[in-house]
């Protein structure tokens, strides 16, 4: 008997043809930022505006200087009052020292020791009062110098305000003069324009008169 035929090997499964993939889109470019619009340059201040601003500032400085001087006057008065109080306290304690010293000299035994302690305390109190008096005197001197400076500043501010007033007055006068000159030029220009118009009207009238006569002569010759 014939040997059985060997079975044919199983064929590999055929894969379906792959569809071509769509081409990828290029990445979107980032949007360009619009350049910032350049800020408009600040308008230069006119001479009149600058003068007005300067005058306002001068008045502000004048008010400030006046207030500073008033505060300095008050501070000086208070410092002088404290100085007088300190001086009076030293005088009073000096009298206490003299009194206690006399009592100490007259005392005997245990009382003398007590008076010595009282005398030491009186002297210490006097020394402390003298230190306070020196401090009050220094404060009074400083306040006097401060008032002197405040007065100078106040006087300077008054002069500045007066100077600004003169400048404003001068500026107004110059503006008025310029306005008058401009008005004069405008009047002259109007007058010249009217004269030119009258001359043109006269020339036109004469031309029309000549043309009329020419036409009349033509009619007569016919």
UniProtKB/TrEMBL annotation:
Biased composition (Basic and acidic residues): 111-136, 151-177, 184-222
Biased composition (Low complexity): 1-29, 82-91
UniProt feature, compositional bias: Polar residues: 52-63
Annotated region (Disordered), positions in chain: 1-222
Protein name: Uncharacterized protein
